[in-house]
């Protein structure tokens, strides 16, 4: 089965978690794009509104006719659906491959249930083979790179990319992340870091993996 078919399977399964009449938090990325399209096909009249984690997802949602609300207006969400770059079996995630990590983390924090959807290649024993994205205030980029080097990472500036918040991304290679909660705290405390793409303090609640033999669901 092709990776896109696996992503679509996971996206379809996530619709089961969406309650008619609810406001749905929507992440970013190719797997979420399938979710948005399927939500439009199968539940468009039943969704009160959405809250989006990126300009790209907002555009796609609005093209389908969904109302996109500001999180400040909505305040709280019952469900958030998003993808991931890696997950371990405890549902700690690496996110931010698409650069939307900060808004994604905010919406995850505001949601009762975080449903993560991915193809089964994203499940790993130890996080870190995928370079860990860190969103930084531009003037602090070099200073933070030096600190990330000191903790054993190899940061690379994602050149020609500016986040929706106007910041830079460092992709940190060569990390083997044995304690995701501790590393999330450590990197978040570096002055100038906006967000690290480790979602461990607030992990996913449900991970839906699409694979050759269908869906596998892991719950926290
Ligand atoms: C964007 C993300 C995405 O969820 C992550 O990159 C997975 O993307 P895809 O579904 O395209 O594999 O964190 O910031």
Describe the structure.
The model has no long low-confidence stretch (mean pLDDT 97). The strands form 3 sheets. Strands 2-1-3-6-12-13 form a 6-stranded mixed sheet. By secondary structure, the chain is an alpha/beta fold. α1 crosses α2 (30-43). It is globular and about 50 Å long. The protein has helices at residues 3-14, 30-43, 55-63, 71-74, 101-109, 141-150, 180-188; strands spanning 23-26, 49-52, 77-82, 86-87, 93-94, 111-119, 132-136, 154-157, 168-173, 193-196, 198-199, 206-211, 214-219. It has 2 domains: 3-124 and 201-219, Rossmann fold (3-Layer(aba) Sandwich), CATH 3.40.50.1360; 132-197, ACT domain (Alpha-Beta Plaits, 2-Layer Sandwich), CATH 3.30.70.260. The two termini are 27 Å apart. The chain is built from 7 helices and 13 strands. The structure holds ribulose-5-phosphate (5RP). Residues 27-31, 82-85, 95-101, 104 line the site of ribulose-5-phosphate (5RP).
What keywords describe this structure?
about 220 residues; alpha/beta; Rossmann fold; Alpha-Beta Plaits; 2 domains; six-stranded mixed sheet; four-stranded antiparallel sheet; 7 helices; about 25% strand; binds ribulose-5-phosphate
Topology:
Elements: H1 3-14, E1 23-26, H2 30-43, E2 49-52, H3 55-63, H4 71-74, E3 77-82, E4 86-87, E5 93-94, H5 101-109, E6 111-119, E7 132-136, H6 141-150, E8 154-157, E9 168-173, H7 180-188, E10 193-196, E11 198-199, E12 206-211, E13 214-219
Parallel strand pairs: 1-2, 1-3, 3-6, 6-12
Antiparallel strand pairs: 4-5, 5-11, 7-9, 7-10, 8-9, 12-13
Helix pairs in contact: 1-2
The structure holds ribulose-5-phosphate.
């Amino acid at each position: 089965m092709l990776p896109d078919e696996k992503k679509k399977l996971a996206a379809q399964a996530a619709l089961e978690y969406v309650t008619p009449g609810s406001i749905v938090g929507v992440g970013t990325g190719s797997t979420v794009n399938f979710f948005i399209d399927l939500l439009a096909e199968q539940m468009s009249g039943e969704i009160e509104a959405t809250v989006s984690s990126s300009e790209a997802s907002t555009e796609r949602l609005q093209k389908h006719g969904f109302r996109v609300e500001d999180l400040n207006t909505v305040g709280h969400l019952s469900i958030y659906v998003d993808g991931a770059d890696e997950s371990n079996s405890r549902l700690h995630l690496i996110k931010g491959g698409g650069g939307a990590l900060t808004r994604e983390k905010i919406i995850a924090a505001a949601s009762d249930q975080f449903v993560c959807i991915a193809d089964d290649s994203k499940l790993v024993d130890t996080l870190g083979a995928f370079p860990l994205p860190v969103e930084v205030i531009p003037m602090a980029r070099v200073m933070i790179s030096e600190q990330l080097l000191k903790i054993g990472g190899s940061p690379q500036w994602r050149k020609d990319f500016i986040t929706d918040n106007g910041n830079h991304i460092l992709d940190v290679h060569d990390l083997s992340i044995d304690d995701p909660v501790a590393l999330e705290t450590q990197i978040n405390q570096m002055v100038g870091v906006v967000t690290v793409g480790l979602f461990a303090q607030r992990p996913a609640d449900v991970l839906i993996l699409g694979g050759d033999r269908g869906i596998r669901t892991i719950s926290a």
